[in-house]
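Hello K.,

You asked for the raw outputs rather than the summary table, so here they are, unedited. I folded two proteins back to back in the same session to keep the settings identical. This is the first:
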Amino acid sequence: MTPRGYREEELVANRASVLLSGGTEDERRTWAATAARNFSHEGPLVEVRQSEQVSDALRKPRGVLFIPDVARLSFTAQGLIVRCLQTQEERPKIVVGLSGAVENARSKGTLREDLLYRLHLAQVDLTVDGMRELMVQRRAQLVADEAARKAEAERLAAEKAAQMKAAGISVKSPRMRSKVAPRATSPKVTRR
C-alpha cells in the first residue's frame, strides 16, 4: 500500500478504481471478489484477460471489472481503460491487477504512464506485511458465504417444492425427464 491516497479498507468498499500490485493472481482475484461482494446488487465480477474483451467490458455502467494482469494487455487496451476513467461518469469499478511491482512494469514499459497516473491515489501493494494473511481470511470468508448462499437456495427450493406438493401441484425435477423412444426409421423407398 502506498502511504498517500486511500486506505486498503476504503478501496475495497468504495467505487474508486484500483491498481493491485504484487501477490499471486489468486490473491488479486480474491481482493476483486471481495470488492465485488460490496456491489453484488450490480452484477457478478467480470474478469477480462484479453485485449479484445476490454472494450465490451467497459461499456457496462455498473459492477466490478477485474483485469488479472494489465501488463499482458496491449497499450491500446490500456488506453481504453484510461479513456474510460477520464470520460465515463457511469462505469464499473475497475480492479487493475499487476503481477509484479509497479516500478518494474513502469521501467519495462508494460504499464502506461497515463494509466498509472489515473490510479496513483488508489494503489494496493499485496506484498506488504499482513496482506497475504488478510487475503487468506477473505478467501475463507468468500467460500463460507458462497456455501451459505447455496445452502439457503437449496432450502428455499425444497420449501417451495413441499408447498407445491401440499397444494397438489405436480413437481417435476429436471433429473426426472422421461426418456423418449427412438424414432422409428422410415421404410426404404425404392425406385423402379
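The second followed immediately with the same parameters:
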Amino acid sequence: MPSWDNDPKGTMTAAVLTSVGAKPPSDCFNLNHSYPKPSLPGPEWVLVRVKAAGLNRAELRSRKGEKPGMPEFGIFQAEYHEDPPQILGEEFVGIVEGAGEKTGFKPGDRVAGWAYGGGKAHDGSYAQYTICHSRRCFRLPDTALAWDVLGGTCMSMWTAWGALFETARIASTSTVLVHGATSSVGLWAVLLAKEHGCTVFATTRQKEKIERLRQAGADYVLLEEELEGSLNEIVPDGVDCVLELLGPDTLLSVGLKHLKMHGIVVVVGILAGWGSGISPFLIPSTRKLSFFTSSGDEGLENLPRVMEDVVRKVEGGVYRKEVFVDKVFELREVGLAHRHMEENKAVGKVVMEIP
C-alpha cells in the first residue's frame, strides 16, 4: 500500500455530483462516505487532505450542465470531461498527505492549490482528499489563521493581485474601476488596490451590497444603472485601469468606454457568462486590453512573497475575514452553498469546510 494512503479502506467522504441540469442544487449532489480516495497519477503530483474548499461560479455552470468548451488544461487535455458522476472543486487549502518524488513537497506541508482540471479531468476538492499538479500547489506561510479564512484568501487574492500588479502594473496614484466588485476576486481587488494607495471605484447591481464595498475601502461605490453618469462626473477623462469581472459583453459599454488614454482593461472574470467576443477593431485607439488568469505561470515567482504579506495583514486586521469571506458551509451543505451563490446572495468568497 502506498505510504500516502493511511486509510486501510482507501475511501473518503465526498460530495459527488450525480446529475446536472435545471433542478434544485441539492438534488444534484450525493454525500458519499465510501468514495475511493484518489491516487497519485505521476511523480509531479501531490495528494492533499482538504481542509477547506473555495467555491467558484464555474462550478455552478458545470452543475447545470453548461459546457463552454474545453479549457486549456494542458496536461489534462486527453482526460477532459464534464459528465457525472464527478467531484467538482478547483481550489483548496489543506495538508499534503503524499507527494511524488519530483514535487518538492512532503507529507505534513500546509498548502493551497488551484486544482485546474478538478471536476473535469480528475476529481476535485469537494472531498476529503484531492490531487493537484505540483505546479499549482503552494506552501502556506506559518500561521494560526483558520482554514476557512485561508480558503477565502488564496486563489481569489492571487487572481486580483496578478491582474492589478502583474498585468495592469498599477501605481499608487492610479485610478482603478472594479466592475463586478462584490465577487471574491472583486473584493480582493478593492482591498489590494486601496492598500496600495489607489483611488478605487467599485460597482454593484444590488443596493444591499454597497456597505460591504465601503468596508473593503472603495472610495466610490456605484450602482450599475448609475455608473455612466456618476463616473463621467467624477473622472471625465476616464480611469487608469478597469478590472472586468462580468465578462466580454460589457467591455465596450463599460470597461473600454470609461478608460483614459493609454489605460488598460484587464478581464479577470465571466460572472455574466462567456459572451460573444469582441472585434479588436472596436477597441478604442491608445487603449489596452489584456487578460489575467491564475491558471497561468505569470508572476508565480512572486507568489510566496505576496502570500506572506497578505497572510500577515490578515493576521493584523488590515484585511478582515468578515469583508472577504461571505459564508462558510459544511461539505454536507454543498447544495445550500450552490443555491446561495446562484441566488446572487454572496458578497465575497463562499467556503466549504471539509470534515
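Residues 141 and 308 are 6 Å apart (CA to CA).

Happy to rerun anything if the numbers look odd on your end.

Regards,
P.
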